[in-house]
Please model this.
Amino acid sequence: MTELAVGFDLDLTLFDTRPGIGATWRAVSAESGTFIDVDRIVSQIGPPIQDLIAPYVPAGEIDDYVAHYRRIYRHHGLAVSPLLPGVREAIAAIRRNHGKVYVLTGKNGHDATRHIEHAGLEVDEIIGWVWAEQKAVAMRERGITVYIGDHPADIAAAHSAGGVGVGVLTGNDDETTLAAADVVLPSLVDFPAWLESHLTRQRMETLTAGLKSYGSLMVAFSGGADSAFLLAAAARVLGPGRVIAATAISPSLPSAELDAARAFAAGLGVRHETPETDEMARAGYRANAGDRCYFCKAELLDTLGPLAAALGVDAVATGTNADDAVAGFRPGIRAASERGAATPLRDAGLTKTQIRALSRDWGLSTWDKPAAACLSSRVAYGIGITPTRLARVEHAESALRAALHAAGVPVRNLRVRDLGDEGAKVEVDAEHIAALTPELLAAVEGAGFPAVTVDARGFRSGAMNEMLAEPERFR
Model:
């Protein structure tokens, strides 16, 4: 997966520094008694300030004027230079896509840093004193492939670095002077939507190329949104006849998930294999320490690998996505990697949000399917996994979901967490917590739990991991 790295200009891209630059040069002009056409300078922000004041100051004194300007800028320019609309949202969009954020500016590094810190922006690096080709050099050194600026020189630098140049109309230039940009946006408010579209298109091209590299593929198909999308993509690229869906049957798979997986595979016209796995035979799985998922995934891949070989299939792939790759504690991903499983979605950089959006566009029924982790994920670490315990969890969840449906509560995410002797803890979407009356919770007790509590924080994936005191020792 190629890491996303995005660069921003500072003046008139992140901040409207015209008021601050103007106020500071007026102070310099007044203190020195030198006429400086401040309005003209402000209308030309972008190039180095030495070039902008050259018409008004003797050549031998330019550096002195610039030094004085920089000494007093923080007093006159910082507070009156507002953050432009959409900046925080633009940075958040990059972070959602696991990208790095850089600021490359002709402004000196000290003042640039003051602006960033004053606004409370979190960026990975600030590179000052760079203009035109100097920006391109800095971009190449850092692998920056998207650069956003308000000046034609910003676009030229992006292209010189082999990247995409995004122009914004928050500076002194217009669509005509920014015509060389790959895209011109009114402001950074429009950047998140453009970035998602750009990355989705780019990452789908990478996914298609990756899938084409296989003659045939077996997809470890849980029935969830990620593996369903991968299965559909593989069928589109390779053809249904060269793709096999494999759903492992075991006590940890809810029966309803198997029925849905069969129907989905049939709808794509791909062969559906349902091999049995025996993770219960693995002591590490039964022990249910923090690395339980390692043994589960090992069993799955140790089963699918020989099956794929017997059927003449080139590779086995999982639905691991780009979010999973940075989610922290994921021992199952390590087990799959050790066994050579392909991860086309992760390799392409596709996030869960992008996968769901593409699934919706393709008309896949799984596009908005709630996360459905295996039943073992409901059992608190340290409590042994048994078929009986898993069946009780499945019964409790089915009974509670049915009771909520009958009561008109449109719950989407629901988990019954098995805490052993302490009973069960119920998680639902936060907006439905108040609906969990004792009468409804009786459905969980009826499944065999001695006591039931409600998690006041609501549903969240990986809640059991919060109970691990030292997850590092399971890596």
Summary: The CA atoms of residues 360 and 367 lie 5 Å apart. The longest strand covers residues 100-104. The chain has 19 helices and 13 strands.
